[in-house]
């Protein structure tokens, strides 16, 4: 047992000495008279200990339980929400933590503690870039754009974004509940009743509202192109699953496609399409984290409107460009990648 503590102490001391130099630390960080940084040293030591402990798989449930408790106490969210979020990000968290902790524990401290960040490292919170002074520019008269007078040159484009459709929306239900998202549990006598078509507050939109809206648009407008710009999934991100996401995307795709059967429809990704939320892993990490299932689904949803060669980019990073018509190209960016 003594040997264990000796080894642990050596690990802490060896890693804790790999600290930021005085020149690389933020100016407001606290230094003692020997130029030592207690906060950063303590953080580095704790990260080293945590990294050592996490080498034993049995410790993961303990860390997750601790994270759930922190969420409950400080974020003041219900247990179900905190437990769900901890479980959602479990694999990503341990993968990133172990990778960074093995390479540089002080880098993790620089990410979570701005005062310990290296201003020359773009991955940390304290990254600073010195910009040159703003150049003086001469005022240039811009040529006037020609006015489009012929209606035949105009396109009627329907753009829908951030629908956040909730297929579990209930009416009547409580619109002001304790959870982050409400209107999902039927209540006979709610204090704040949900509306049939939706509710202002902590509720997402019901499916039948989207259905009615699209039907109305189709009857009252001549649409040349539809652009769907992401965030189709509800805000209940602690319950996200690949199966649920695929189900929602396919239902929405069928609805929009059946409403505008001959109209080009282009779909883009939003941050809530990831599982977990905001998760669009690059190809520099393990393949098990790649959202290939999502990119394949969006490839199918955008068919047959993509021009030749667009599939490769879409399947790789969820973004694409396509020729809509002569002189007009559509570019869809996956900014979460």
From TrEMBL:
Domain of life (superkingdom): Eukaryota
Segments forming domain Saposin B-type: 36-120
BP terms from Gene Ontology: ceramide biosynthetic process; sphingomyelin catabolic process
Any one annotated GO CC term: extracellular space
Signal peptide per UniProt: 1-16
Pfam families: Metallophos
Keyword Glycoprotein (UniProt): yes
Gene3D superfamilies per UniProt: 3.60.21.10
Catalytic activity: a sphingomyelin + H2O = phosphocholine + an N-acylsphing-4-enine + H(+)
UniProt-recorded Gene Ontology molecular function terms: acid sphingomyelin phosphodiesterase activity; hydrolase activity, acting on glycosyl bonds
Keywords: Disulfide bond, Glycoprotein, Glycosidase, Hydrolase, Signal
PANTHER family: SPHINGOMYELIN PHOSPHODIESTERASE
UniProt protein name: Saposin B-type domain-containing protein
Organism: Caenorhabditis remanei
Lineage: Eukaryota, Metazoa, Ecdysozoa, Nematoda, Chromadorea
């Amino acid at each position: 047992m003594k040997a264990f503590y000796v080894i642990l102490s050596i690990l802490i001391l060896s890693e804790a000495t790999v600290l930021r130099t005085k020149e690389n630390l933020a100016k407001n960080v606290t230094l003692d008279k020997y130029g030592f940084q207690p906060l950063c040293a303590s953080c580095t030591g704790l990260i080293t200990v945590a990294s050592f402990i996490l080498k034993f798989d049995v410790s993961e449930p303990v860390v997750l339980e601790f994270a759930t408790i922190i969420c409950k106490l400080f974020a003041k969210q219900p247990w179900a929400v905190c437990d769900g979020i901890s479980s959602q990000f479990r694999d990503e968290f341990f993968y990133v933590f172990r990778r960074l902790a093995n390479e540089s524990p002080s880098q993790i401290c620089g990410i979570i503690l701005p005062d310990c960040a290296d201003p020359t490292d773009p991955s940390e919170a304290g990254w600073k870039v010195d910009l040159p002074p703003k150049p003086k520019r001469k005022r240039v008269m811009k040529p006037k754009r020609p006015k489009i007078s012929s209606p035949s040159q105009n396109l009627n484009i329907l753009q829908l974004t951030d629908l956040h459709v909730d297929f579990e929306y209930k009416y009547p239900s409580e619109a002001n509940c304790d959870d982050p998202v409400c209107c999902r549990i039927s209540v006979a006598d709610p204090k704040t009743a949900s509306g049939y078509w939706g509710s202002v507050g902590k509720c997402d939109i019901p499916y039948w509202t989207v259905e009615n809206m699209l039907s109305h648009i189709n009857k009252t407008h001549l649409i040349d192109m539809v652009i769907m710009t992401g965030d189709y999934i509800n805000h209940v991100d602690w319950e996200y699953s690949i199966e649920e996401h695929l189900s929602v995307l396919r239902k929405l795709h069928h609805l929009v496609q059946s409403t505008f059967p001959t109209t080009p429809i282009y779909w883009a990704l939003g941050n809530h399409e990831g599982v977990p939320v905001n998760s669009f892993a690059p190809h520099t990490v393990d393949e098990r984290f790649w959202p290939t299932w999502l990119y394949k689904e969006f490839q199918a949803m955008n068919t047959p409107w993509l021009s030749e060669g667009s599939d490769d980019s879409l399947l790789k990073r969820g973004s694409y460009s396509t020729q809509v018509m002569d002189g007009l190209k559509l570019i869809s960016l996956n900014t979460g990648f």
